[in-house]
């Protein structure tokens, strides 16, 4: 007994009268009110085990799915709605005489609205220590099938996936005499397909992650977090999307205390600055401009680290993004307050520090609430025309043990400290990267030049100190010629760290030996293009 749309009450062209709804939800927020609203409109409610129980408990009249299908829910819920009686009721083309005849013959009852949200796969898979069996049990099968069926047949049925949509759906039903319009059903169908696509993406990604190779199909989904005021430039639009299924993103654990909305460029610089200070356990500060540090330093306190980072290149630090890995106290805030800062991020602020900092309207003050160092197993992705470049992250730490002193003179212990400090900073500088450091603070940075010797020249020119006597130099890749080290040595550099591996290594080492300079090969390169 196929129940075609009622001939009694007229419907607007393209509108569908909702007479029977199937409700089957994991997230039960708002479902009772939604079902009550439907029932008040005379809609018959069919529902699955847990959902039916919740509705019955609220005093609603519910028809159990096994009564509808004539087949019991079995196998711990693995099979509850997967039945041709339901799918014929969802998929019939109700303007097709043959479909209607077949429905009549099989005594199919039409379902006009499906309200489903799925087992919480993403949340379950993201839980620490969760068993594989539990993750797999959270792969919903019946739910997506119903959603896809109803969404495909949106010419005759409506599909609702988000509790946030319940009120609007009820309102339209009330206003339009129990019907939903075609535009509404179409937009609900689009939402349903996006929802199941996201769901399947999370599942595919979970399987792919178990295998360390790059998968043949690189599947990811990204969810909009916020529209940004503009992109890299004011004539470009911009938005920030977070990757579905990752434990954290650059903004997920960030609380904004003060200032304007964070911008596209701010997010890029913030990510870089935070990554740099997270290299260190001791108080550290990084000042980033245009995605390159213009100062980085360690210190006995946040204040000292900041002052020493700032001293590296005060001119470039103007309008910078500053990251600290220590709480900001009033004294540090007073020093910071002397400068124009675009963004400040730190793990916390004393109340009286915030009082000082918030006197300036424009500074964006962010609190980094991510306490653990996140281990990003995710590969790094960059977009190129029509595609993506995917690579392992340049993670891990190069330790002194794996390095080789290649000169006659070995670095002193102080030089070793500066060499390792400069080396770690150089990884955060765009290639060709040269970092000069003394006393665990950068004193000159040459970034993003197309020739390495130009980066050396720039770093030496940038140095604010009268001479670079005793400074250490880090180069993110080998020196192709001796000219770069020679330039630095003439300026006073006494220790150099670089990967080595050039065909002219011998010339480069000879230049260092001739000047009594210590040189270390790391055997690992850290280009950052
Ligand atoms: N197997 C099935 O036939 C099936 N039909 C619906 N579900 C899901 O079961 C959940 C609701 O279950 P309950 O009403 O029992 O709490 C929904 O998330 C729905 O997507 C199913 N579960 C898994 O596939």
Automatic annotation (TrEMBL):
Gene Ontology MF, one: IMP cyclohydrolase activity
Keyword Thylakoid: no
Catalytic reactions of this protein: (6R)-10-formyltetrahydrofolate + 5-amino-1-(5-phospho-beta-D-ribosyl)imidazole-4-carboxamide = 5-formamido-1-(5-phospho-D-ribosyl)imidazole-4-carboxamide + (6S)-5,6,7,8-tetrahydrofolate; IMP + H2O = 5-formamido-1-(5-phospho-D-ribosyl)imidazole-4-carboxamide
UniProt keywords, alphabetically: Hydrolase, Multifunctional enzyme, Purine biosynthesis, Transferase
CDD domains: IMPCH (cd01421)
Domain MGS-like: 10-161
Origin superkingdom: Bacteria
InterPro entries per UniProt: AICAR_Tfase_dup_dom_sf, Cytidine_deaminase-like, MGS-like_dom, MGS-like_dom_sf, PurH-like
Swiss-Prot/TrEMBL GO biological process terms: 'de novo' IMP biosynthetic process
Parts of the chain that traverse the membrane: none
The enzyme's E.C. designation: 2.1.2.3, 3.5.4.10
Keyword Hydrolase: yes
Family: Belongs to the PurH family.
Domain remark from Swiss-Prot or TrEMBL: The IMP cyclohydrolase activity resides in the N-terminal region.
Protein name: Bifunctional purine biosynthesis protein PurH
Originating species: Baekduia soli
